[in-house]
Design brief:
Blueprint lengths: L5 H25 L5 H10 L1 H20 L10 H21 L5 H25 L4 H25 L5 H36 L3 H26 L5 H20 L2
Helix pairs in contact: 1-3, 1-5, 1-6, 1-9, 4-5, 6-7, 6-9, 7-8, 8-9
Length: 253
């Protein structure tokens, strides 16, 4: 993609990261390890996810307005899945906030929202499976970046589950390493394009993206290394690096 398509690129990044974060948060909520107060504070932080998804949809529409739409507007399956997830997740959030129905009903709503997010993830991987570098960046944004965002939300909600502070960074690091190992061989193809077509920007963008991904995971792991509790400032810095990494990945294609 070209630089001027930044609304569509940023829209994809925000959508993937917010859906990945909700999947992780949904699993934490379903585990039952959060008390009522912690869960209530976590639901308040989910406003960030809804803002990200709303901004993503707005940016997407702006990009379509600026693009050539002579062939007419046709919504894709991935966009439809994202909109469906947004609607289902918002419904769950509403019934949880106002305590509509029984605990079992609200849990079913959460499971449905997580399932909708999982459907988006599976479809996204399926349509990108022909190009492993693209698929690895999708995984890095949705799962690694999403897990990082989920951890930041939990830190903001002042959770008390110590296992989360060790499990989520390690999980993110494993995902990042897998994405790096699957993406690095594809850089050879991009380097060969420099000699044949002279296109150097895709290669540079992907190198920057992978470098920033490693930097984000490194910052994320710092509290584990120093044996201290994660703070929101460090999490925000790592999250910023992850978002910029995902943006450069989009520019590279």
């Amino acid at each position: 993609m070209a630089w001027f398509e930044w609304p569509f690129i940023l829209s994809s990044v925000l959508t993937q990261m917010s859906i990945g974060a909700f999947i992780v948060l949904g699993m934490v909520l379903l585990s039952g390890k959060l008390c009522f107060g912690q869960a209530d504070r976590l639901h308040k932080t989910m406003l960030v996810l809804w803002l990200m998804l709303f901004s993503a949809l707005l940016l997407r529409e702006l990009n379509l307005m600026l693009a050539d739409t002579a062939d007419g507007y046709r919504i894709g399956v991935e966009a439809l899945l994202a909109i469906t997830f947004f609607a289902v997740a918002l419904f769950y959030w509403f019934v949880e906030k106002v305590l509509v129905g029984s605990d079992l009903f609200r849990k079913y709503c959460l499971v449905l929202a997580v399932f909708a997010g999982g459907s988006y993830l599976i479809h996204g991987l399926a349509v990108r499976s022909d190009h492993w570098l693209v698929a690895s960046h999708f995984l890095a944004t949705t799962l690694c970046g999403g897990t990082l965002l989920a951890h930041a939300c939990l830190v903001r909600a002042q959770h008390k589950v110590e296992e989360v502070n060790t499990l989520l960074p390690r999980l993110g690091a494993i995902i990042a390493v897998i994405c790096l190992l699957t993406g690095l061989p594809q850089l050879g193809e991009l380097s060969s394009q420099i000699e044949t077509t002279g296109a150097i920007m895709p290669f540079i963008s992907q190198v920057i993206s992978l470098g920033l991904l490693l930097a984000a995971v490194g910052v994320w792991l710092m509290p584990l290394v120093t044996k201290s509790k994660p703070v929101l400032g460090v999490m925000t810095f790592a999250l910023t690096l992850s978002i910029v990494s995902s943006y450069f990945a989009g520019v590279g294609f």
